Each structure stands twice: as C-alpha cells, then as structure tokens.
Amino acid sequence: MYNKVKPILEINNTKRGVNYTMGPISIHQFNEFSKYGINALRLFQYVMTVRGLKKLRKDEFVKIDNANLYSWFGVHQPKKWTVLNKLHNAGLIELRKQGKGKAPLVKIIVPTKH
To answer: Are 32 and 44 in contact (CB under 8 A)?
Structure first.
C-alpha cells in the first residue's frame, strides 16, 4: 500500500509525492542486486526512483542521502554502508565517498543485459 504515506521530494523548488519508480527496470540488474539481499534491492529501487524523478542519464551519479533512503525504502544508515560496500566490491556500482558526514554518490555499472 504505497499510497498511505507520500514522502515529499523537492526538485527545483517544486514538491512531488513519491510512490513509484519511473522508467523501465532491467531484470538482469534486478537479479544481480537480489543476490545481495533485500537492502540491496531497496538501494537499487532508490537509485532508479531518484534517477527517474531528476531525469538523470544512466551515466550520472545519484546522491544517497539517509533521510530519503529511510523514509522511502526503510534502509537505515548503518545498513546503507554495509550494502554500498558489498555492491561496490562486487562490481555492481561505482561508489564515490564525499568525506565524513557527506552523502555518497552512486552509479549503477552492471549492464542491463548479460
């Protein structure tokens, strides 16, 4: 029941409710992320949602902030870092750490088809 709570995302001074992912999702990418657990899938869903809302290209990085990741998909900050490191070591994402206290940037690098 994703319509119960509508968290707000503000882009270019306009507020939008978030309740689905925009754009197609590759079943190959979904399968690769599923090998690393439910939080990996939630992170994948978060990246795809933000990429759709901000109309980012596939080669652009997405900022992974704690507040939206928790309110939209229920992933806590310590689990976020565990999953990010696992996925980075597996070669599924490119991870850019911005420094202590700053949100990391992520780009999905696993191909859409194998």
So the answer is: no
